[in-house]
Sequence to fold (139 residues):
Amino acid sequence: MVDKRCRICYASASLQNPLFHPCKCDGSVKYVHSQCLGTWLKSKDTLMCEVCQHQVDFEHSVPAAFQWLRLVCVLLSLGYIVADYLFRTFWYIPLAFVVSSFLLFSFYVAMETIPSCRPFKHPVNYSKPKKATASRSKV
Fold:
């Protein structure tokens, strides 16, 4: 039986740093740590194993804490698609809102700037307040 050791740093596997076999090599050069493999591939600038000429494949895993973000992104994307579809299908509703706002604003401007369109202004008749004749008792 072959002792499982990393072929780069010669350390054995641990819970924090497990060993992988990313290529078709066999025997004592089969296993490697993920960090050691990454450092080795960066220095060689290739994804091929020098011993067996097999291209090293990587599996990308999403951390469990970020799984819910995928759902949020999908829901936001679907919301955007639905909103875009509704806007393209019912384009006349926002258009009617814009046109009615423009017409109301134009009517307001016309009422304020053209003197003949203004409503008649009457002075307000204020009456003097009546004085209270209540007697106050002195104690």
Q: What stands out?
A: The mean pLDDT is 78. DSSP finds three helices and two strands in the chain.
